[in-house]
Amino acid sequence: MHLGMIGLGRMGGNMAERLRRGGHTVVGYERHPGKRDVDSLEELVERLEHPRVAWVMVPAGGPTRETIHRLGELLEPGDIVIDGGNSHYVEDQKHGAELAAKGIGFVDVGVSGGVWGLQNGYALMVGGADEYVAQLMPIFETLKPEGDYGFVHAGAAGAGHFVKMVHNGIEYGMMQAFGEGYELIAASDLVTNVPDTFRSWKEGTVIRSWLLDLMVRALDEDPELSEIRGFAQDSGEGRWTVQAAVDHAVPMPTISAALFARFASRQDDSPAMKVVAALRNQFGGHAVESAKGADSPGADVTPPQT
């Protein structure tokens, strides 16, 4: 297929590359010169084949709203806009309605995979009308991992980002549990080999997982996590998950506590939050704060070549 990718950062750039490797033609636009194929949204739209497909991968909030609004002015009936960023699902519903009034399709895609997605594929959580999703399936098939998993058409517009929001809330809880377990083991006088303890859990246990593998990798690089500060930002999706739980009267103590722990990390240098910060760096390339006081990219997040 032929599509435009707007936003060629850590995620968008790798997604564009995976699509090109899969035989698709991608026209990329980035505000900053260097990576982009065109110099403006207008030029990007002109370069696309009909019906046009424009995938937006820019920061949520104002940048996404502005980009989608501008695309609504440039595109024509029958074209499709994809929002693949971390937008709030409520925003998707507004964008879908605004574009539908112009005959333009809208699909929201929650994307998970971080810096490993180029190599391993991206988990895609999709919301939108059946006809648009069906039209875009060749793109989704290339981006997702090989096999039966890694893709869901979750429902109407907004459903993709809703389930991605919950996915990230679950991620908060899992990382917090690993962090608290690490802190307790490290505090014990009985355990003298903390990294190998977690390494031993990679096989044969019920908590074996990709997050555990990444934690072992982080401990291999910094066994006492002494090079980073126990500070972890929240992306916003954890807050939205907790708010949605309140809106639907769904009890969510674990995810709520994990979100509040991130707030606490901004006040105290917590060993548990060192693990959360290290894991965010490992799977997503998120910057960590150095224990020495300066921001640092932290661990090498380049996926190993196989």
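That was protein one. Protein two is written in the same sequence-then-structure order:
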Amino acid sequence: MSQLQTDPPVGGTLSTIRALAPNLAPSERRVADICIARPKEFAWWSAADVAEHASTSTATVIRACQNLGFKGFQHLRMLLLRDLGASESRVQDASHTKDSIGLMQAVFGEVAADLGGALTPLDREAFDQAVEAIADADRVLVVGNGVSGPSASAVAVRFILNGRTAEAPTDAVMQQLTARHLTSRDVCLAISDSGLNSLTLQPAHAAKEAGAIVIGVTGYARSPLVELADMGLVLGGGTGPWGAHGASATVIQLTFLIGLQIAVSERRGGSAEAAAQTLEHVIGILNHVSTS
């Protein structure tokens, strides 16, 4: 695994490890799992301490850190200490929250911090390839189910508003039927935070069998969706006090898809004119409805 191009932003180290850890060998994966489960202890342990807790060797600990994209064990420790300090401040702020608006501000602060590190695991080359594929495709089918369903619908609407024809059936059966009729000139954009949702994997498989390009957007580097996809776009997730509520993961996913849509529009050119024409058309439809 290549070294990270830049250090993860403050708060982004654990989300980066969580996204990339599935790619490690089993003994190295144990090192990553210990780091994710016990970051406070990991940050102060020696490499020998980590090796003992992970039932492996010191050399494996160092190699695991390097295969996660860090320069080495000490580099990872430094980033963990940095993030833990920032996280502790956020937790203290949250614990002193006395009213609803204070809680809202704390949640917004956490999401902002998680957004800052969300792109660290992203393969830049795969992203560029995905943008080009979507821009040049005859048809774009967007599939997503469960909590990823609204994101799939939202990005499809944004594609349409900016002149890029797209479709996002909400029914799982229709997703599969549509995917079977794609060709090698088409793209299936499959969205699943876990990369495990069978309702999303099935149309992605059907699209692959039909010869279409499959682009997967997920939060985990080793998942069925990434293995299936021609281009796997992996994002970091939230790690703060409200991570269990899924706040950051949902916002990160939708923000990324909006960025993807904007990049595609820029690649195609004329997006501003297309958006203006679409807006005029929408206004015309609304005016007709209001007067009928």
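DSSP finds 14 helices and four strands in the chain. Keep this in mind for the problem set.
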